[in-house]
Amino acid sequence: MDKYDLFIQKIDHFQSLVEEKKQLQDKIAAIEQEYTERIRPLQLELDTIIKQLDQNLAKLETTPATPATSSGYTKYGRGQLGEAIKDLLRSNPEKAFKPKEIATALNTKGTSVSLWFNKYGTPENDIERIPAGAGGKRFVYKFKG
Predict the structure, then answer these.
(1) Residues 82-113: b if buried by 16+ CB within 10 A, e if exposed
(2) Which CA distances in Å does 145 have to 78, 130, 135, 136?
(3) What is the value of pTM for the model shown?
(4) How far is CA 26 from CA 29, 32, 39, in A?
(5) 113/98 Cα distance (integer angstroms)
(6) CATH number of 80-143
(7) Which of 33, 71, 94, 114 has the most crowded Cβ, counting Cβ within 10 A?
(8) How confident is the model at residue 64 (pLDDT cuts 50, 70, 90)?
(9) Which of 92, 90, 114 has its CA nearest to residue 103?
């Protein structure tokens, strides 16, 4: 064996190590890709849940307690009556409520609830308005969910 054969033998060994290194890098990249694909949906779901928790917490922290007036009824501020009605309907999705029943549950006047439904409640997508009674002038309300 001359010096050229020794040189070629060393290069062959070096090349085999380089090939082995490339194969290991490819395996690692494939495992990392698989890991990323399996974890991504869980991370997205977790991020969505955290965002919902943050929104609910912000609502709880910013919603002041509704004060009762001297007449004994709870007076709701602007927008609060609608949120209270929606929360009540969401919490009882199987039941249809008359405006008077909603008012009783929220300790407010039935006329306030009826006015809210007539003025703001019609375009609500998650509230179903069901005709009840003679002439179709009376309605009950239910959560669509």
Answers:
(1) bebbeebbeeeeeebbbbebbbeebebbeebb
(2) 25, 15, 27, 24
(3) 0.50
(4) 5, 10, 20
(5) 10
(6) 1.10.10.10
(7) 114
(8) low
(9) 114
